[in-house]
Amino acid sequence: MKKREGFGSRFGLLAASIGSAVGLGNIWRFPYIAGEYGGGAFLVVYLLIVAFIGLPLMMSEFMIGRMGGKDAIGSFKELAPKKHWYISGVLGVLAAFFILSYYGVVAGWTLEYIVNSATNRFAGKNSEEITNLFVGFISHPIKPIIWQVLFMFITGLIVSTGVQDGIEKFAKIMVPMLFIIIVILDIQALRLPGGMEGFKFLFKPDFSKIDSKVILGALGHAFYSLSLGMGIMITYGSYMSGDEDLGKTALQISIADTLIALLAGLAIFPAVFSYGVDPTSGAGLVFMTLPNVFPKMPGGYFFGVMFFVLLALAALTSTISLLEVVVAFLVDSFNVERKKAAVLSTIVITIVGVFASLSNGPLSEFLIFGDNIFDFLDKTTANYFLTTAALISVIFLGWFHNQEKVSDQITNEGSLKVGYSGIFNSLVKYVLPVGIILVFLYQIDIFGQI
């Protein structure tokens, strides 16, 4: 059999995994979620959840991939032949497929906004005009699809060239670029008049704001932000060498992911406070609120363009990882040549994405269980696929898989001296299932009905 391709260096592995976790969720979603849930109070809860739930869940997915040595489905079949645990992998692959179909649409929006910023289209427009610009664009039958197709073409091209020559090579370039751009934006934002108020909002917690809603919101976002339940970390785990320290790697990825989310908040909240924008503006913060702010800033033209380039890079690092889950499945399970698998996957996912895009305009009246196609794909994957896939994974690893083999994965067959094996096992057995069930109940809004 042909030797399975893997990452060529530890930095390449970290860059690819960090790139997967870092996406629109960090730069678009984290700031507005933090704004809605009270800034610093949300941050404290979020960090605790990442440490005790996100980190061990990521390690669990890495373990399954490295032990199985195949794609998200094939790894379960290797570890538990003739059993049905592979359903977790099936849900993960389906989640990656459907998430990428609508995520590619949003990623395409970032390209439109790079052009809008570069051509100074936001200058002189009031907030209502900028909002109408966004709504008119996403509801247009052609323009968003052109950008979506272009973005998916770039994604497919990178994935088709392989793990080392494609994913790893580009991640090594894109992830450092992300850090550089976001730090430049932070420096500029903190220099704005009143910008330190945004800093205080993010880092000075008001613990009186912590309630069950904040905790559940942080739990749901941690799950979303770290790319868990999508088959990504299982797939990347299968590319890891046997001497890779899983705990250290997962910790570094979690820290980098959280750091970029914080840096994104530092780039946004000082500007928001400086220009009197409501920090709880919600999902429209990036596409409908910030374009009002940039033209008013010193050097706003340059920083506006840079911000949307940052968004596009973050989106690309995630679309590559999502597509790789589907491509790896076709390569491993059906022995399809990588380039063919990448082309086929990209075309089919893009076609589904076209319908998701059109559901914001011409197909807006076509509803599935009360939601348009875009929202249905989003809710179905987030509410059911991701949480169910993750729950099956931790139950399998914590209760039905050989615990000695789990400990061997943590210690690399005894070559690493670690003292957290017992804690990890307890978290996987007891804490993670409860946490994942709470995420599931929160996502389907069961708590809002109590």
Descriptive terms for the model:
450 residues; mainly alpha
Please, could you describe this protein's structure?
The structure is a single chain. By secondary structure, this protein is mostly helical. It contains 18 helices and no strands. Helix 9 packs across helix 12. The longest helix has 35 residues. The chain is globular and about 65 Å long. The model has no long low-confidence stretch (mean pLDDT 90).
Residues in β-strands, percent: under 5%
Q: Helix- and strand-based class?
A: mainly alpha
Q: Separation of termini?
A: 55 Å
Approximate shape: globular
Unreliable stretches: none
> For the CA atoms, what is the radius of gyration?
21 Å
pLDDT averaged residue by residue: 90
Number of helices: 18
Reported for the largest beta sheet, the result is:
none
Report the count of strand segments.
0
Bin the helical content. Answer: over 70%
Q: Helices and strands, in N-to-C order?
A: HHHHHHHHHHHHHHHHHH
Write the layout of secondary structure elements.
Layout: H1 10-21, H2 24-36, H3 40-68, H4 72-79, H5 87-118, H6 127-138, H7 143-160, H8 163-190, H9 195-203, H10 212-225, H11 232-238, H12 246-274, H13 290-293, H14 300-334, H15 338-358, H16 373-400, H17 403-411, H18 421-443
Helix pairs in contact: 1-8, 1-12, 1-14, 2-10, 2-12, 2-14, 3-4, 3-10, 3-11, 3-12, 3-16, 3-18, 4-5, 5-7, 5-14, 5-15, 5-16, 7-8, 7-14, 7-15, 8-12, 8-14, 9-12, 10-18, 14-15, 15-16, 16-18
Give a concise summary.
The chain contains 18 helices and no strands.
